Structure formats: structure tokens, C-alpha cells
């Protein structure tokens, strides 16, 4: 009951913001009923009442065809109705702390508490090469800009550069006296900057692992170290309550007056290096002039620690994530809030913009990630639930999917709804789908309408994202990809899980094959051959 009430309050605040942001002429042209229908649908969908939600979404879309977040929720519900599969990365044996894409989006690297980092094919979800092994938790991992190497940072007091194709170590391990929390390549990939607990850090040659700069010494932990866009300087965020700009090769100070009243948890540049953005335990984030260290705009205030802050692509907006259970979107020049707080039920560990800055994703300790409109703050998804605390959420470089890591071995993908104006048929499809879930004799399904729509969409070759979604929706299950933006068929995906051969992969393959007896028999036989396998009869019973 309390959860439902909290959701209702969040929805009400979102609705108020949508109406406040609407142009005056739209406010007079009855957008109110469309928003009310969207809000009611969002509430019902959160409670599991999908038929009623889809019917209200159809109503909302007919009342307001464009600029309506109901389209995103409709996309999500229709996708869930059409498939029980989604791309996942399976192979880790403990929680996953971080993930990163290669620049071209073809591969993903993940860092885990199972003491490994792993590289994956972003299209198929299959692991590429061997696990990159450490002796402690791997705190982070990232690709070099050209995608040929990976750097990892671990609790075992080392960072390591690896060949991304072979998984072999390149150069000697980078050794710090304390647990590493940060390791990042320079823009040209020739150096690595590290930060560690108890104030240790440095800059290293990426090919040899040898130091390039004198060691960094701080009285408290170094939370992050990042290169400037031109690679000449490093930006250090520390427990000393400041962010320092130092020369990369000499560690000489360039700028030291970027100060907060408590730990600085993150510090980053905008794309051209003219601005610095910091997030602090003093409950604020701030934008600074990177040349003189002077603050720009007001401090962006939260109710508790601010874990992270990031610019959008053109640095006109900032998104912050806080222990106060919210993320917030701000005007980067003034420091004034753009949207109401983006509310979670627990601490928000991170928040990121999608590539064009129109959507924000949040990652929370409440075991969910969420999508939000960056202008209105309206929810664009139901809570995306993970098996543990969500540790990170990142968009693919193309912006079509959201990758979610959590304190669980399984890494999940979520399809991002199209941002183009929805077609008129989306409301018809939502209405039809609502009658298929729960038949209503008073409003029987328009089979003739749906048959015409199906034939038209399957014959279409348009690259429009809504047309592509419509084609996917009406495909037969044998040839339909596992999700709207994937190109991998269910058969190919299940074959990949079978090839992996571990219990977790086979269990997931079995869950996707309940209506395919031949696949089920094959998977059951493989499960029975695993060490300590459950007897076949019991396994068959569990799969019912």
C-alpha cells in the first residue's frame, strides 16, 4: 500500500511538471485528459493491471498523439507481451560492479566481484576470449579509444592493461600500495591514470606498466582520476574536499581551488575541456571554469551526499545522483533545476544521459533502473528490476538499449523506446493488445484492422524505428529477434546459451524453450550431464 502511494505521488508530480512545461496553446487544447490517462495507466501497469493500462494508453495517445510519454510506456508493455526473452550477459559468478562499451558499440567489458573482468559481443551476448583474472574484486574496466585494449582496476592493489582480442596481459601490472578504485586511459591510449584508497595514484605507461609521473599522495582516498580531453592534464577527485588539475607527466599543480566542504566523489570535464563538474559529500554538485577554477552558476543542492554528476553531450545540462533517493537534472549554466526530483525508493548510485540527451537513466540501490524524460522528468519506463542493487546503467553508443549491472552475476539489456513521434496505429495496437490479454465482449477486438496493419507492417522496409518495432511485433516467433532492436533470433540466442553449457545458461535456455519440445529435450539432457546435476525427473518437474 505504501509503495502504491509513493508511486502515485511520483506520478502526480510528473504530471504536474508535464502540464507546467506545455505551451500555453496546448494547455488550452485539452492535454489534461491525455496526461491523466497516461498517469493512471502508469499506476495500473505498476500494479500489474496491463489490460486496463493498455486501454488507457491508447486513449491518451489518441487525445495527444505527439509529445506524450504514453508512447514509451506502450512500447514497453507491448514488448513484454510479445516476448519472454531478452539479451543477457551470463558467465560471472558474483555481482557486477561496472560495465563499459567499446567506442564502436560492438563489445562490452564488465568488472565483477568474482575477481574477473570479461569481454562480450554486444550483439549476441557471448563472451569473447578468456576472463581477465585478478586476485580481488575488479572495481572497474574500460576500453581504450581504439578498442584494442582494456584496463582493469582491482582490490588486489593492481591495475592491468590487456589485449582485448586475446585476453593476454600487456606490460607489467600497475602496482599501488592500496586498493584501486579508478583506472582510465588517456585519450590517445598511451597512458593510464590510477587512483586508490588512502590517497595513492599516478600516471603510467599503458604499454609497459611503468610510471610516467611521480606518485600522487593525498591524505584521504582518491575517488577518481581522469585525463583532460587533450591528455595533457589529469583531474583528481579526493577525500581532501577538492578536485585538482595536475600535469599528467609531472604531477605539478595546474589548478587547486576547485573546493567543496567534504569528499569530492567524482570530477569530470565537458567534451572540450572548458568546464569541470564535481559531485561531493557536502550535498552539492558544481560546475567550474576549467581555466581559472571559478564556480559557474549556483551550487546544485541535494538532501544528502551526491555520488556522481555528468554533463549531457553539449554540456548544457547536468544530471546528478544522490544518497537522498533522487537524481536531478539541472541547467549547467545557472545551476537551477530543470525537472522535479527523479525519485527512487533508495539511494541513487548513478545517472546518465543517452547520446542525444533526451533521456536519463538512473541506477539505484532499490534494485531498479529507470528511464526519464530529461526535459519534463516524466517516467518513460516502469522500474527496470534487477536481482540486486543496481550498480550501473549505461546506454549503448547508438542509444537503442540500456545495459544494467547489479549485485547479481546477470547483466541485463533493456530496449529504449523510439523518440520519434508515434504513428496513429500505436493506439490501435495498444487497444487490440488489451483485448487479447483480457477478453471484453463489449469492446471486441478489431481483427480486420489488425490484419491490415500486420500485412502492411510486415511488407514495410522503412527504417523508421516505430515501423521496425511494428514489423518485429507481428513476426512469427520462429524468426522474430529476441527483442525489438536485436538482430539475434530466439533460436540463435538459445543455441548460444546451449554452447555456453553452464547451469545458469542452460536454465535460462530452458525457460525460453517451454513451448519448443525438441529444444527442451536437448537442454534437459545437457543439464543432466553437468556435475552435481539434479536428477532428470526433478528437473522436468521444475521446468513445468
Low-confidence runs: 1-30, 535-544
Describe the biggest sheet? 4 strands, antiparallel
Strand arrangement within the widest β-sheet reads 1-32-31-30
CATH architecture of the largest domain: 7 Propeller
Provide mean pLDDT, rounded: 90
Query: Which value, in Å, is the CA radius of gyration?
Result: 25 Å
Helix amount, in percent? 25-40%
What is the CATH level 1 assignment of the largest domain? Answer: Mainly Beta
Please report the number of helical segments. Answer: 12
Oligomer: single chain
Give the beta-strand count. 32
CATH superfamily of the largest domain: YVTN repeat-like/Quinoprotein amine dehydrogenase
- Find the CATH topology of the largest domain: Methylamine Dehydrogenase, Chain H
**C-alpha end-to-end distance:** 32 Å
Describe the protein.
By secondary structure, the chain is of the alpha+beta class. The chain has 12 helices and 32 strands. The strands form 8 sheets. Strands 1-32-31-30 form a 4-stranded antiparallel β-sheet, with no helix packed on it. Strands 2-3-4-5 form a 4-stranded antiparallel β-sheet, with no helix packed on it. A 4-stranded antiparallel β-sheet has the order 6-7-8-9, with no helix packed on it. β14 and β15 form a beta hairpin. The longest helix is centred in the N-terminal third of the chain and has 20 residues, at 2-21. It starts with a helix and ends with a helix.
Amino acid at each position: 500500500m505504501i509503495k502504491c502511494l509513493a508511486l502515485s505521488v511520483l506520478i502526480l508530480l510528473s504530471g504536474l511538471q508535464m502540464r507546467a512545461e506545455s505551451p500555453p496553446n496546448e494547455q488550452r487544447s485539452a492535454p489534461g485528459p491525455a496526461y491523466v490517462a497516461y498517469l493512471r495507466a502508469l499506476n495500473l501497469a505498476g500494479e500489474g493491471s496491463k489490460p486496463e493500462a493498455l486501454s488507457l494508453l491508447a486513449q491518451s495517445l489518441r487525445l495527444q498523439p505527439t509529445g506524450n510519454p504514453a508512447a514509451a510506456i506502450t512500447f514497453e508493455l507491448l514488448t513484454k507481451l510479445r516476448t519472454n526473452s531478452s539479451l543477457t550477459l551470463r558467465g560471472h559468478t558474483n555481482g557486477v560492479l561496472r560495465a563499459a562499451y567499446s567506442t564502436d558499440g560492438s563489445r562490452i567489458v564488465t568488472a565483477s566481484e568474482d575477481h574477473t573482468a570479461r569481454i562480450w559481443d554486444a550483439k549476441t551476448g557471448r563472451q569473447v576470449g578468456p576472463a581477465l583474472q585478478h586476485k580481488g574484486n575488479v572495481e572497474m574496466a574500460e576500453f581504450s579509444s581504439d578498442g584494442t585494449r582494456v584496463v582493469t582496476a582491482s582490490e588486489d592493489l593492481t591495475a592491468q592493461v590487456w589485449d582485448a582480442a586475446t585476453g593476454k596481459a600487456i606490460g607489467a601490472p600497475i602496482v599501488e600500495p592500496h586498493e584501486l578504485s579508478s583506472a582510465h586511459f588517456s585519450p590517445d591510449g598511451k597512458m593510464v591514470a590510477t587512483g586508490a584508497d588512502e590517497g595513492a595514484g599516478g600516471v603510467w605507461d599503458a604499454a609497459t606498466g611503468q610510471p610516467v609521473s611521480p606518485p600522487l599522495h593525498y591524505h584521504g582516498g582518491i575517488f577518481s582520476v581522469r585525463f583532460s580531453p587533450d591528455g595533457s592534464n589529469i583531474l583528481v577527485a579526493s577525500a581532501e574536499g577538492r578536485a585538482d588539475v595536475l600535469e599528467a607527466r609531472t604531477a605539478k599543480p595546474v589548478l587547486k581551488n576547485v573546493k567543496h566542504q567534504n569528499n569530492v566523489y567524482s570530477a569530470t570535464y565537458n567534451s572540450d575541456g572548458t568546464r569541470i563538474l564535481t559531485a561531493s559529500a557536502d550535498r552539492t554538485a558544481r560546475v567550474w571554469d576549467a581555466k581559472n577554477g571559478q564556480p559557474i552558476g549556483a551550487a546544485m543542492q541535494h538532501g544528502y551526499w551526491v555520488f556522481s554528476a555528468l554533463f549531457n553531450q553539449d554540456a548544457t545540462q547536468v544530471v546528478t545522483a544522490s544518497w537522498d533517493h533522487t537524481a536531478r537534472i539541472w541547467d549547467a549554466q545557472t545551476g537551477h533545476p530543470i525537472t522535479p526530483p527523479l525519485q527512487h525508493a533508495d539511494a541513487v548510485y548513478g545517472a546518465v544521459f543517452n547520446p542525444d540527451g533526451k533521456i536519463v537513466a538512473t541506477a539505484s540501490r532499490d534494485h531498479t533502473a529507470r528511464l526519464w524524460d530529461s526535459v519534463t522528468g516524466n517516467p518513460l519506463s516502469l522500474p527496470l528490476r534487477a536481482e540486486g542493487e543496481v550498480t550501473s546503467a549505461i546506454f549503448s553508443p547508438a542509444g537503442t538499449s540500456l545495459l544494467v549491472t547489479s549485485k547479481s552475476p546477470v547483466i541485463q539489456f533493456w530496449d529504449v523506446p523510439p523518440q520519434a513521434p508515434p504513428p496513429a496505429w500505436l493506439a490501435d495496437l495498444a487497444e487490440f493488445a488489451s483485448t487479447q490479454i483480457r477478453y471484453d465482449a463489449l469492446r471486441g477486438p478489431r481483427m480486420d484492422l489488425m490484419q491490415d496493419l500486420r500485412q502492411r507492417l510486415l511488407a514495410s522496409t522503412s527504417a523508421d524505428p516505430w515501423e521496425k518495432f511494428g514489423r518485429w511485433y507481428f513476426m512469427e516467433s520462429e524468426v522474430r529477434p529476441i527483442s525489438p532492436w536485436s538482430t539475434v533470433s530466439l533460436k540463435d540466442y538459445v543455441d548460444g546459451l546451449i554452447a555456453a553449457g553452464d547451469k545458469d545458461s542452460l536454465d535460462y535456455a530452458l525457460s525460453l524453450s517451454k513451448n519448443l519440445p525438441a529444444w527442451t529435450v536437448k537442454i534437459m539432457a545437457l543439464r543432466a550431464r553437468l556435475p552435481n546435476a539434479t536428477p532428470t525427473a526433478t528437473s522436468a518437474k521444475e521446468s513445468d
